[in-house]
Amino acid sequence: MKLLSVNVGRPRPNPWKGLSATGIDKRPVDGPVAVTAPGPKGTGEVGLAGDRVYDLKHHGGVDQAVYAYAREDLDSWGVELSRQLENGAFGENLTTVGLDVNGALIGERWRIGPDVVLEVSCARIPCSTFQGWLERDGWIKRFTQAAVPGAYLRVIEPGDIRAADPIEIVHRPDHDVTVALVFRAMTLEPELLSRLLVADALPQEEKERARRRT
Predict the structure, then answer these.
(1) What angle do CA 48, 127, 97 make, to 5 degrees?
(2) Most exposed: 3, 43, 156, 175, by fewest CB within 10 Å?
(3) Do 180 and 73 contact (CB within 8 A), yes or no?
(4) DSSP count for the chain of H helices, then E strands
């Protein structure tokens, strides 16, 4: 399990959501990147130095500090989309290999390189910016059906990361709530919502949503 690339966003216009900009255009960077815990949602801050979000209502903050997606899943999507998807193509900060990102448990912790520890917090929910970025009609529906959303992570221990850093799972909580399960519950299978409440590390906003709907 290792980090293939660390990807930082380049601001670009966002005609798909009526915002001034988007940071979805992530590109691999050379050398180490500092990872720190950002401020609360609403500031635009994220965990990687040089990156930020522009949809302040829905992105960024402590629970969405870093977004990871597996190279294996990008390759599968590339076949379906008939195009080569470069690292960072889904707006992910971390492109991984050998790691079951969607099978990761909420609250699972990863050590990346010698210093950084991240904690799996929730699943990525697709939006109109994502669909517009990929220039694919019906993309939100197709991405939702597939239920391979990638994982948002919190910063537990800050430090520097770089491409080729090893990834080690250093903690797995005692429940069965995976990233994929959270995504399915929050989208097409609300009957699963009650199962999410055993995951203490799930963001408070999503716990409250699960309680309201069960």
Answers:
(1) 50
(2) 43
(3) no
(4) 5, 12
Instruction: Please tell me the distance from the alpha carbon of residue 192 to that of residue 185, in angstroms, as a whole number.
Output: 5
What are the two backbone dihedrals, phi and then psi, of residue 145, each rounded to the nearest 5 degrees?
Answer: -60, -35
Q: Which two tokens mark 190?
A: 């609300």
Q: Tokens 């491409």 sit at which residue?
A: 163
Query: CB neighbours of 146 closer than 8 A, spacing ≥ 6?
Result: none
Q: How many CA atoms are closer than 13 Å to the CA of 83, on its beta-carbon side?
A: 9
Task: Enter the tokens of residue 177.
Answer: 């709530």
Separation of alpha carbons 70 and 110, rounded Å: 14
Single-letter residue type at 208:
E
Helix, strand, or coil (residue 139): helix
- Residues in the chain, how many? 214
With residues binned 3-state (H G I as helix, E B as strand, rest as coil), the percentages for the chain, rounded to 5, are 25, 30, 45
Q: Compute the C-alpha angle 67/70/74, nearest 5°.
A: 110
pLDDT on residue 20: 87
pTM above 0.85, yes or no: yes
10-residue averages of pLDDT along the chain (214 residues): 97 91 96 96 95 92 97 98 97 98 98 97 96 96 98 98 98 98 97 96 94 85
Cα angle at 33 between 31 and 36, to 5 degrees?
165
